[in-house]
Amino acid sequence: MKYKNTFMVRERAVEFKANHTHEESHGITVCCCCEKGQSKLTCTFEKNIYCPNEIAKAHIVVDNSECEVAVKDIKFFVKQYFSIEARGFFGAHHDFRDTYSLQEDHEVGPPAGGRCERAMDINLAGIKYDVVATRKKKGMTIDRSPEDIFLMSGVQPAVSKSRHIFNRYELVCELSYDACTCCDELPDAQ
User: Fold this and answer.
1) CATH number reported for the structural domain that contains residue 27 in this entry
2) Residue 73 is assigned to a structural domain of this protein
3) For 89, phi and psi rounded to 5 degrees?
4) Which one of 94, 102, 118, 122 has the fewest CB atoms closer than 10 angstroms to its CB?
5) 184 compared with 68, residue with greater pLDDT
């Protein structure tokens, strides 16, 4: 007789932080040489630890009062860093590393010389992965249980202490400007 129960193990949180504020200010340069003043981003994240069914919230203040370029877009999103390291016999070594933007919220930014405050949120339950309903075991095709499909389709646990698998999520707030800022470091919060 055998019974299988599906469960998920999550890593222990390092340190819980509530209402963590990140502030960053940068000089904006357009076309690689023309200084257009300072732009300041202040982002207050509600907390730093979330469950897969929660809503991540942030309060964002963009102070563009000393800048001559308008903020075209305020982007608040979840970024996933994922890597798998496989080591085989006889020195074979393979790495897979990728970064994904999973869920996004966009708002219009302030004009040149303006200031704005935005409350932005992301529903983490909206992050879903496609799961194949069958799998192979000992050469035979087996159907996955509804519990397995449910757990595998949602946000996967963050993994940082594993030897071969690394999975991390970050909440990110980025600004894009209404000019060519390709050579410039722009304000962002993570």
Assistant:
1) 2.60.40.640
2) yes
3) -75, 155
4) 94
5) 68
pTM of the model: 0.75
Tokens standing for 41?
Answer: 């981003």
The answer as to whether 8 is a domain residue is no
In a domain, 3, yes or no: no
Average pLDDT across the chain, whole number: 79
Residue carrying the six token digits 């496989």: 86
Domain ranges, residue 36: 18-185
Residue 85 · residue 143 · CB < 8 Å: no
pLDDT one-digit tens code per residue, 111-165: 888 888 989 988 888 888 788 888 888 888 988 888 888 877 877 777 776 778 8
Domain total of the chain: 1
